[in-house]
Amino acid sequence: MKVEIITPDREIYKGEAYLIQLPGIDGSFEILNNHAPLISALKEGRIKLKKSKESKDEFYEVKGGVIEVLNNKVIILAE
Count of CB atoms within 10 A of residue 36's CB? Predict the structure, then answer.
């Protein structure tokens, strides 16, 4: 799936991902390929991103934000 992590200042990540784990306001959740459409608020925490099953985890710290998932595209507007 395609993933974009954007802050008001810059684009943090743009590319493909196998899995993304996020700090939702009601608890942590994961997004995989072909996930149902979703819009959710994020709280302060770490975003975990895996580019493939075998790849090492990448982490991005956020202070909050919003995620939209639609048609295998994930857009995260983060603070």
Answer: 7
C-alpha distances in Å from residue 78, one per residue of 34, 47, 52, 55, 56: 22, 10, 23, 24, 22
Q: Total domain count for the chain?
A: 1
Q: Are the beta carbons of 74 and 20 closer than 8 angstroms?
A: yes
1-46 residue pLDDT tens: 999 999 999 999 999 999 999 999 999 999 999 999 999 999 999 9
Angle at 31 between CA 34 and CA 77, to 5 degrees: 110
Cα-only R_g, the chain: 11
CA distance 77 to 18: 19
Q: What is the pTM of this model?
A: 0.91
Domain with residue 6: its CATH number is: 2.60.15.10
